[in-house]
UniProtKB/TrEMBL annotation:
Translocase in keyword set: no
Taxonomy, superkingdom: Bacteria
Pfam families linked: HTH_1 (PF00126), LysR_substrate (PF03466)
Species lineage: Bacteria, Thermotogati, Deinococcota, Deinococci, Deinococcales
Alphabetical UniProt keywords: DNA-binding, Transcription, Transcription regulation
Gene3D superfamilies, per database record: Periplasmic binding protein-like II, Winged helix-like DNA-binding domain superfamily/Winged helix DNA-binding domain
GO cellular-component term (any): protein-DNA complex
PANTHER family named in the record: HCA OPERON TRANSCRIPTIONAL ACTIVATOR HCAR, TRANSCRIPTIONAL DUAL REGULATOR HCAR-RELATED
InterPro entries, per the entry: LysR_HTH_N (IPR000847), LysR_subst-bd (IPR005119), WH-like_DNA-bd_sf (IPR036388), WH_DNA-bd_sf (IPR036390)
Protein name, as recorded: HTH lysR-type domain-containing protein
Similarity section: Belongs to the LysR transcriptional regulatory family.
Length: 299
């Protein structure tokens, strides 16, 4: 049974006239008559009483009309669901993110994405960059949000936001009285920082920057999460070099100062190459770029 036969039958039932029904569905009258007759043969009972003046439905035709309308409505909904899926408007998305993005970037992206795509279920997972890379490779994650690109053959990445490093200092520190610092000002200071294995690229970038100024940071305490590191700064344990947007995390006892010639750190979206045409992934990347407003260099 073809949908066009149902459409022809519904048009005939509503118009009660072969000529008007044929015009409504854009076919010649004989084609519509044949379509309805084929439908009756398939159903096995008469659906229409044909008279010289008008067309009437048989009792079977009246019941069939109810089902035909329901079937056509369901078919329309099914087509629309497919079209919405192709536009990335329905589905499920699992997104990994490094902890610091919870304080800037991630809330804006997720809020906007849910406004535009309310029928997409978003599962957020706070993970380190290595955990995200493993999750992407294992198809546990659809998109990862992390600092700096991941170099892997089956992963693509896109820069969403570029931010300079800044100095986080204890509020009573003498350097806090300066409006702007040089990286060499921090040479004698104890540092707090991530373990290298958690954010190797970020760690190495900071170390190269400091080495260019003639010193190696004296890391006296390591911690995994940004809030912990900043709490250590507030306690006077050491100084820290976070990305600028972390200054949104306003903690008592911590001040932020810009540093001359600070390197820029990319905040990246990463996804599996074979998911690059997934409409939900593409929709999320588009919203992420819109909200963070950075360049789109792809690696």
């Amino acid at each position: 049974m073809e949908l066009r036969h149902l459409r022809h039958f519904v048009a005939l039932a509503e118009e009660e006239h072969f000529g008007r029904a044929a015009e409504r569905v854009f076919v010649v009258q004989q084609a519509l008559s044949n379509s309805v007759r084929n439908l009756e043969e398939e159903v096995g009972v008469p659906l229409v009483l044909r008279t010289t003046r008008r067309v009437q439905l048989t009792p079977a035709g009246q019941e069939f009309l109810v089902g035909a309308r329901e079937t056509l409505a369901l078919a329309g909904q099914t087509v629309e669901r497919a079209r919405r899926a192709a536009r990335g408007e329905v589905g499920r998305l699992t997104v990994g993110f490094v902890s610091g993005l919870a304080f800037g970037g991630l809330p804006e992206i997720v809020r906007r994405f849910r406004e535009l795509y309310p029928n997409v279920s978003v599962d957020l997972r706070e993970l380190t960059a290595p955990e995200q890379e493993a999750g992407l490779r294992g198809a546990v994650l659809d998109v990862g949000l992390m600092l700096l690109p991941v170099r892997a053959a089956n992963l693509d990445s896109r820069a969403l936001w570029r931010q300079p490093l800044v100095a986080a200092l204890p509020a009573g520190h003498p350097l806090a009285r300066k409006r702007r610092l040089k990286i060499s000002d921090l040479a004698p200071e104890p540092f707090v920082f991530f373990p290298r294995q958690l954010r190797a690229t970020y760690f190495d970038q900071v170390m190269r920057w400091c080495a260019g100024a003639g010193f190696t940071p004296n890391v006296v305490q390591e911690a995994i999460e940004i809030p912990t590191l900043l709490s250590l700064v507030a306690a006077g344990v050491g100084v820290f070099l976070p990305i600028e947007f972390f200054n949104r995390l306003s903690l008592p006892g911590v001040v932020y100062r810009p540093v001359e010639d600070a390197p820029l750190v990319d905040i990246m979206a990463v996804w599996r190459r074979d998911e690059g045409k997934n409409p939900v992934v593409r929709a999320f990347l588009g919203v992420a770029e819109e909200m963070l407003g950075a360049g789109s260099g792809q690696s």
